[in-house]
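Task: sequence design from structure.
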C-alpha cells in the first residue's frame, strides 16, 4: 500500500515512508473503530484498500485534503453498511437520532388597551 500511495503522489524517495506508514495504520484503526473486522482491514480487498489510501491522501495531499476527506467519509459510511465486513453478521447500529420536538409555543401577547401618552404632546395641546 505504501508504494501505491507514493506512486499516486509521485514520491520517489523514502523520506516520508514512516509518516505515510503511520497514516496507513491510523486509517486501519479508524475502520476497525467503526466495526470493520480487523481481518478485513489487515488483508484488505479493493474497497477497504481504496478507503485506507483515500484516508492517507486526505492527510498527505494538502491541496486536495478536503476532497479526499469527504471521499473517505463516504467510503467509510458505505463500508459501515456492508454486512459481510462485520463479525458474526453483527452490523453496528446507526447513531441515535434526536427526537423531533415541537418548537416551544410563546404565550399570547396582550394588546395594550390604550395607546401610551406622550407628556410633551399633552403640553403642546394645552398651550
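Answer:
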Amino acid at each position: 500500500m505504501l508504494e501505491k500511495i507514493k506512486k499516486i503522489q509521485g514520491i520517489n524517495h523514502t523520506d516520508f515512508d514512516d509518516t505515510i506508514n503511520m497514516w496507513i495504520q491510523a486509517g486501519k484503526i479508524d475502520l476497525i473503530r467503526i466495526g470493520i473486522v480487523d481481518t478485513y482491514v489487515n488483508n484488505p480487498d479493493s474497497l477497504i484498500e481504496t478507503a485506507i489510501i483515500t484516508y492517507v491522501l486526505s492527510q498527505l495531499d494538502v491541496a486536495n485534503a478536503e476532497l479526499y476527506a469527504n471521499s473517505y467519509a463516504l467510503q467509510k459510511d458505505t463500508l459501515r453498511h456492508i454486512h459481510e465486513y462485520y463479525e458474526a453478521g453483527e452490523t453496528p447500529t446507526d447513531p441515535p437520532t434526536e427526537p423531533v420536538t415541537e418548537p416551544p409555543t410563546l404565550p399570547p401577547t396582550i394588546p395594550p388597551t390604550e395607546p401610551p401618552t406622550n407628556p410633551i404632546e399633552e403640553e403642546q395641546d394645552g398651550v
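Residues 89-97 have pLDDT under 50 and may be disordered.
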